[in-house]
Amino acid sequence: MLRLPIAFVSLAIFAVRLPAATVGPAMAAEPFDLSQVRLGSGPFREAQERDRAYLLRLEPDRLLHTFRLNVGLPSTAEPYGGWESPGVELRGHTLGHYLSACALMYRSTGDQELRKRVGYIVAELAKCQAASPKAGFHEGYLSAFPESFIDRVEAGQQVWAPWYTLHKILAGLIDAYTLTDNTQALGIAKSMARWIGFRVDHISKEQMQASLETEQGGMVEALANLYAITGDPEHRRLAHAFDHAAVLDPLAQGRDALDGLHANTQIPKIIGAAREFELTGDERYRKIAETFWDRVALHRSYVIGGHSDSEHFFPVDHFAEHVDPETAETCNTYNMLKLTRHLYSWDAQERWMEFYERALYNHILASQDPAQGMFVYLMSLEPGHFKTYSTPENSFWCCVGTGMENHAKYGDTIFAHDADGLFVNLFIPAELNWSDRGLTIRQETRFPDEATTRLTISGAKPVAFALRIRHPQWSAGPLGLRVNGQSVADPSAPGSYAELKREWHPGDHVEVTLSPVLHTEALPGDTGEQAVLFGPIVLAGKLGSADMPSPYERDQLDLAHFPHASVPAFVAGDPDWVNRIGRISPHELLFRTHGLAQPQDVLLAPFYQLQHERYVVYWDVLTPSAWEDRARKLSALEADWKALPSTSVDFVAAGDADSESRHATRAGRTETGIVAGRSWREAMKGESIAYTLETHGQSNLALTCVYGARDRARKFGLWVDGTRVATPTLTGENIGDIVFERYEIPPDLLNGKSSVNVKFQANSTWDGATANIFACALVRP
């Protein structure tokens, strides 16, 4: 049996030792094993330690509960909630992530308790797999849900992504084998592969392709990794069976046909293609991977490196419509970083690291809650909004699973090597044990707070190698290089690597000075909305925590509809307005605008540091005349709001207890709160809010409703005494906090009545919810 070095298989990113029957490409850069890199003091190690604490708080038996019940084995554990609840079809996916995360964290830290947990879980999964035939499943099946879920996929029936969950389990077992040397895990994985072969072979190729329309995670990648371990051509064949032609074929032709597709369903397919290129040398797979990366990383991504809205790709010229609370799913960026590391390994070009660094700092690091180590699912870019985190025991979203892994493997890309030398890719404090060369390289840095890094070499004897230090595109001008205190000329250009080739002696050190500058990046296709960066670090405006709810929620969308706060705009009549943003301290990234933001100047800080507060990433940049026009409209809007109660026949302030009690309010599951001094209420999907409003005998009336100004794409109806009078369509393209909408009421609904029932009914679809309702009033025409 062929066995590959741990890092090659488990992370599936760089060169691999292939079975003799395969012809793979030569790799330009190779990884170091996670056990060779230890993080130094800084935000990444802090995130790693928070993640490790969370992994240790979770109880393996609670994650195993539904696996045991599924095959008739006893369990007295209390199941976890959220997506791991026993009635949820995706149950079991977290255990696969947990196996991977524990194995990765063990490799990154040496924590033996995590290795012990991996061993316990693997042994218990073996019992579950052995009991599968008695439970009526085919031999080798292993899951927390019945095998009939796969029958439903094959029949084209509705089911929530069973292959996706099975991939997480298989990948977790492979990580358990490669990272903790657990041979039992490999045996279970091989048995799963035999079962997969049975499922693949009993349907036609056409049926198989149709089944791939249902999200299947990284089945190609996992089976390809298994093939790289075993050399069994059956595993290679099964990986190829999961190639989804409808997605891969256009990319192989260099075409972007991604609009409307569920984003994270596709990225693992492309990672699988990258892995197949590495195992076969088939250039078609390379074309697929590079085309996809180019289109998503360079054309479909927000400034933080994430992409998608409501989990889906949208047309690249529609970005202005997609700056909202449901942008940038964190799982997507987790997978894009995996794909980026594949592409980097093929040619070791600096351009891959530009994207990697941007997404790592501004999305992945930014996605962890510093208080409890929880995780962000959808990274809200709605101006004036905030981050929503998972709960410790009742969420377990997909981004909780990938989040466990994200913060367990920060050491995997800081350094890489080839036959001639070392690549320093990221400026993160860490110590590398380069055992093959008998060297230790320690990187000490406070980047990005300080734009310097120091590399110190230790070892028993001198060693000759090329030290290649990344010269980022964002660094203005040449790198400052000093070797043992002596300046060294830097012939490199931004977007390359500075190479220092010499015999290195114990105690040698290199000091590097970078030159990050403030710069802006427009929202794609919209120069009127701009983000501000310092080097690779996205800066966000700090808006405080006023009127904010607790940011922890079981459902990832529970706070997506929570109203935003008033947001300043940048007002400038010249293109060099970024010069009106000044740094406050040389030792931390904290900036203040000077006569730029209106109606008041603001502080800006790294987006990854902003937690538990409202923020702005994309700013409206207005000319002075445009700002004056907006100010007039805001003033008029405020006047209309203040006048509404006195000019109405009857008026209810939604969310205000006294006002609602006077109007016989009836409501199902709702959310309420206060923003900018105004109360509001909204009904969740399938629910309603109803008020009784007095007509005072008048029949010639209209209805004025006041909604949240940024509300868009809500699915609800407006009813008067049982008759639908409107299906509100909100664009979200408004200024201020609120927007007024007016609806005519047929006179026959009012004739002879002293009051009417006004109801806001949300749809039952997954995206159904009413708008944030601030007020409802009966008014004269």
Description:
With 781 residues, the chain is α+β, with helices and mostly antiparallel strands. It contains 19 helices and 32 strands. Strand 16 (581-585) and strand 17 form a beta hairpin. The longest helix is centred in the C-terminal third of the chain and has 24 residues, at 624-647. It is globular.
Could you tell me how far the N terminus lies from the C terminus, measured between alpha carbons in angstroms?
Answer: 83 Å
The 3D shape can be described as: globular
Mean pLDDT: 94
How many helices in DSSP terms? 19
How are the elements arranged and paired?
Blueprint: H1 6-11, E1 37-39, H2 43-57, H3 60-70, H4 93-109, H5 112-131, H6 148-154, H7 162-180, H8 183-201, H9 205-211, H10 219-230, H11 233-241, H12 245-252, H13 263-280, H14 283-299, H15 330-347, H16 350-364, H17 398-406, E2 415-417, E3 421-424, E4 430-434, E5 439-445, E6 452-459, E7 463-471, E8 480-483, E9 486-488, E10 496-504, E11 509-513, E12 518-523, E13 526-534, E14 537-544, E15 569-571, E16 581-585, E17 588-593, E18 597-598, E19 603-606, E20 614-616, E21 619-622, H18 624-647, E22 650-653, H19 657-661, E23 666-667, E24 670-675, E25 678-683, E26 688-694, E27 702-708, E28 716-720, E29 723-726, E30 738-744, E31 755-762, E32 773-779
Parallel strand pairs: 3-7, 15-21
Antiparallel strand pairs: 1-4, 2-3, 4-5, 5-6, 6-11, 7-10, 8-9, 8-11, 12-13, 13-14, 13-21, 14-19, 14-20, 15-18, 16-17, 17-19, 22-32, 23-26, 24-25, 26-31, 27-30, 27-32, 28-29, 28-31
